[in-house]
Amino acid sequence: MSVAELQALEAAHVVPSYARFPVELVRGAGTRLWDDEGNEYLDLLSGISVLNVGHCHPAVVAAVREQVATLTHVTNLFYTAPAMRLAQRLATSSLGGKVFFCNSGAEANEAALKLVRKAKPGGEVVVVHGAFHGRTYGALSATPQESKQAPFAPLVPGFVVAAPEPAALEAAVHEGTAAVLLEPIQGETGVHPLSEELLRAARAACDRVGAALVFDEIQTGMGRTGTLWAYEQTGVVPDALTTAKALGGGLPIGALVTGERLADVFAPGDHGSTFAGGPLVAAAANAAFDVLEEPALLASVRALGERLRAGLAALPGAANVRGRGLMVAFDTDDAPGLVRCALTEERIVLNATGPGTVRLLPPLIVTAEEIDDALARIGRLLSAVVA
Ligand SMILES: Cc1ncc(COP(=O)(O)O)c(C=O)c1O
Q: Going from the N-terminus, what domains does the chain have, and what CATH number goes with each?
């Protein structure tokens, strides 16, 4: 089927909630994607930080093949080994408490919101400007962006928005606060790391009033910033974190991970989901985990992140280069235009988080040669703009 035919099907039958590039992708392997005409692309986006292990990683493929032919779904009325093993790995690699599985990032945040409200009934949840926590009603209510929230009012009550500054956050937290929910690095709004002062202030404010500090690590987690979890680099430990995206090695799974204090807040019946933590996605996630927790891989993410940022900073037309590990962004005049040209002229996949910001989230298995190649291609695109 041609792209034109796919577009006609979409126009007739698909709710128009996405703006797609006119490209049909048919295959992926490692850092590469191919379209229906056989063109090869260097992927610098990883399906928005989902393919941290790269496309169709052999270990994930093998685990899925074996599991899909053995047992795919049982509901949470039964035990399966892949889910219990994954829970153990998630908890022991981070906060040491317990895990609730779900199917996406927004669902992980929904679980976190229900958990903190149950822990402190009626309590408010404090979020900061620039945050993105998802598009379901609770997660959307925690996402203070007018364009995303306004058409869907009324939202869930009990959310308070503070400026991402220590004093403002401290002032927003009081005895009636159930939680502060933060991304260590704000991803969807342009890769903005929150300052350590802010994270420390959030920790102190939560401790002052007995509120929970929750980190949304849906984009920053699973090795993206050069440690398994971004909070490890901040010196601030949250009471719970949420993860999804890269957790399943390309398959849809999310999780809420608690520390000890919140581990037993939910009782049977409080929350649940039919598919959550099924053996197929859990087997894929365990295979991806094996790859992503490797110290050598994480060291490479840190080194290549620095190489990428230094290379971008040297390019005329790329301003405010920022990020951590392989979660990187720069500002430029026409980001959507650059991203379109990147696809058609240089065959690289990038992302514009807004009119003036380009985001890069390459697979973490990317090589130094591929980073240099990407820089050369982005350099050509920027010089065309600057010229
Ligand atoms: C920080 C953060 N939280 C939540 C979400 C929502 O995740 P999902 O699209 O899987 O619902 C995203 C997705 O981009 C995200 O980056």
A: 28-49+295-386 (3.90.1150.10), 58-292 (3.40.640.10)
